UniProtKB/TrEMBL annotation:
Keyword flag Oxidoreductase: yes
Provenance organism: Bradyrhizobium zhanjiangense
EC top class, as a word: oxidoreductase
Catalyzed reactions per annotation: [thioredoxin]-disulfide + L-methionine + H2O = L-methionine (S)-S-oxide + [thioredoxin]-dithiol; L-methionyl-[protein] + [thioredoxin]-disulfide + H2O = L-methionyl-(S)-S-oxide-[protein] + [thioredoxin]-dithiol
Record keywords, A-Z: Oxidoreductase, Signal
InterPro entries: Met_Sox_Rdtase_MsrA_dom (IPR002569), Met_Sox_Rdtase_MsrA_sf (IPR036509)
E.C. code: 1.8.4.11
Family: Belongs to the MsrA Met sulfoxide reductase family.
Protein name: Peptide methionine sulfoxide reductase MsrA
Job description of the protein: Has an important function as a repair enzyme for proteins that have been inactivated by oxidation. Catalyzes the reversible oxidation-reduction of methionine sulfoxide in proteins to methionine.
HAMAP family in the cross-refs: MsrA
Amino acid sequence: MRRPAVLSLLAATAALTLAFAMPSRAAEDAVVIPAPAMDAAPASGIQTAVVAGGCFWGVQGVFQHTAGVVNAVSGYAGGTKATADYQTVSSGRTGHAESVEIKYDPKKISYGKILQIYFSVVHDPTQLNRQGPDVGSQYRSAIFTTSDEQKKVAEAYIAQLNAARVFNKPIVTKVGALEAFYPAEAYHQDYLTLHPNQPYIAYNDLPKVENLKKLFADNYIEKPTLVNASKATN
């Protein structure tokens, strides 16, 4: 993920380079996968899921277009509060992963469906400590669980997908308990929606939203549920 501070300096060069060198398809293709055989039990009230799968701009963008998600916030998980800032996390030495906290209505979307979207269109779960052009442990594939039930569902689903060999390589996604989630800086929130023409977004992330629309039509919403809009209504 390119740092916002240097985006304006690199945008022209990147756009020109992409125009001549960009392949005909997105960096990461979606994979059609089965729904989880095990899912969380029906529940009432807003639930929380936290996942990491590369740059949080695209992860947030996909779930902001997912029906049943009431808020999706970019942030950091896996490290301490003292190191939960973009510049420090970008060093790859904090333990943090760029993550997204997903608040969702379990009566409209299940935890298992969120994981199905996560493994199918959000990222490539077979890439270790990287995602597409982004390299480092801060871009790792990880599921931060908020309950024992979530842990069981996530681990069972990974085993199910590996057994079915829906991917060419084993899934490397780590599953662990969420200790804390720290929201990212304001300029990272709603980034995909606010900067659709930014070369990184156009090439790496907008295709993920299109794949959501194609593969999960029943779960797709055209108008994204934005962080800024959520704040304005609270």
